[in-house]
Each structure stands twice: as structure tokens, then as C-alpha cells.
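Q: Sequence in, structure out?
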Amino acid sequence: MPEAARAALPALFISDLHLTEDEPANAAAFLDFLHGPARAAASLFILGDLFEYWAGDDDLETPFNARIAAAIRQLADAGTAVFFMTGNRDLLAGPTFAAAIGATLLEDPARVRCGDRDDADATDAPVLLLAHGDALCTDDLAYQAFRRQVRDPAWQAGFLAQPLAARKAFIAGLRQKSEAAKAEKAMEIMDVNADAVAALLREHGYPTLVHGHTHRPDTHRIRVDGHDCIRRVLPDWRGQACWLRWDGRDFTPESGDAVRI
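A: Exactly. Output:
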């Protein structure tokens, strides 16, 4: 079992912001969040789909991307530890992007041990299992085949070798096809598979699982092999900041002006 990363409390968890210049309300909400609630946290975990799409780390010079990256870096420089995990929309964000925002790049899934701010290395602190969530949607066979393709290192190397403009044009076409395909799929197919969730929890010792991707915020209490487990699903952003706060004892769903879930 992989060693858990260490993080201090309180910790905030966000995902599925889908930031883009076309949705200024989300960007504004995120910047307000970084200058407000995130400053009071010891750790911030971004669990994928921070951006609507990411064509490669050489796109950091785009003004919108640069502004978002600089704002996250300011938070990190102010003392909040930032952790970043790629999602399906920003899977091409790599070490250069993580360095630009001052974040630790996490694998998917990632085990994280959260301790008090003054003792983040406590060995008895609880371990959380973090994921973006798309790998658990195993009923969507077409998506899983696509996921395997685009996460193949050889495919990524070939794609990133293309000019940035060509990559953006290709991604724009994929986004259109994706929206059309989702309209024809049953919602259940795009949700997580119970057996996939159970297998993941079993593999990692039955921890609490926190993930996003499905845009179905909720708390699921499930029993796996006689163990009582919890699966927390993060909300997507729709012009309002929303996050999950963990103080080592309780999870508290919060938003810009009210409890969200």
C-alpha cells in the first residue's frame, strides 16, 4: 500500500470548477475563494477539472490561465499547502503547472494523512483516499476506453508534440462530441460503479473516499466486507464557490454564502 502524503488541518477539498474565460462567474468565485476561505485553511486539495480543458503546460502563458495560476501561487506563498490532482478535463496538467502554482502533484488515487497544523506528521492521524472519480465510472465502457487512450504516455507525448493551436482545436472538437455523447447516455452509466468503489476501498484498507467528477454531491455510507465506509462526493461549481472542509473529526460542506450539501 503506498505511503500516505502528509497534510495539515483544517483541509479544504474542491473539484470540477471547469474554469474558462466563457464562464466569468466561476473564475470570480474561485478568486474570491482563494483570497477568503482558502487563506484560513492549512491545506487545499484540488481534485481535478480545475479547468474546462488544459492543452498542455505551455498554455500557462495564456492570460486567463496565467491569472488563475498566479492566484493559486499567492495562496501557496501565503502559507496554505496546495495539492493538485488532474481530472479528465485537465489531465495534461503536469509538473510544470504544479510548480507554477506551488502545488504538490498527486497521483489518482492518493492516500493522504491529515494531522493538526502543528503536527501534520502524526502517524495516528486518519488517512483519506482522494480521487477525481472518473476511473470509478466503469459502466461507461466508451469513456473508459477513451480514458485509457489519452492517459497512455505515448499518446500524450505525440499529442503534446503538436502545435498548441492544433491541440486546442482538437480539444474543442472533443468537447462538442462529449456533450453530444452525454446527451444520449443514461445518467446511471455516468455515475460510479458500486463494485469499482468497493474494490478501491478494499485495496486501500477501507478509508473514507473523497472524489468529484460525477457532479452529484452527496454523502454515501456503504458497507464493504463488514467495514462501514463513507464516500463523499464533491459538488461542481456553478457560479458559486463550494467546498468540503475537514477538521480531522467532521466534514462540513460549505459554499460562498451557505451550506451547499
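Residues 212 and 234 are 5 Å apart (CA to CA).
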